[in-house]
Design brief:
seven-stranded mixed β-sheet, UDP N-Acetylglucosamine Acyltransferase, domain 1, 112 residues, mainly beta, five-stranded parallel β-sheet
Length: 112
């Protein structure tokens, strides 16, 4: 399901949902080129997903999330509203609202 005013760049893949869970992209979300969104993901409204980001299955993002270049979000992770994922980060656990993740030194752990 893709809501209104969503932009999806060239070379992206958005997989169909599995096991009764739809893949959903919220309104006013911008997705750059080369992004992979796996099965059953729920992307909230007003997200910015930059080039070559990879989402594992069943990732959920809430409102106004920013995800930097080449970041990877593993299966089942939840990214809270207004969270910021820096370029090259590997997110291995869920992140609360208004949290930041940077690839160095924290590699997937929130920084207040």
């Amino acid at each position: 399901m893709i809501e209104d005013n969503v932009t999806i760049g060239a070379g992206c893949t958005v997989n169909k949902g599995l096991l009764g869970y739809d893949t959903y992209i919220g309104k006013n979300t911008k997705i750059d080129s080369g992004v992979h969104i796996a099965h059953s993901c729920k992307v909230g409204p007003k997200n910015i997903i930059t080039a070559n980001v990879t989402f594992g299955g069943a990732v959920t993002t809430e409102d106004e999330v920013f995800i930097g270049l080449n970041a990877t979000v593993v299966n089942g992770i939840i990214l809270g509203s207004r969270s910021f994922i820096g370029a090259g980060s590997v997110v291995v656990r869920s992140i609360g609202s208004d949290q930041k993740v940077l690839p160095y030194p924290s590699k997937g752990f929130p920084i207040p």
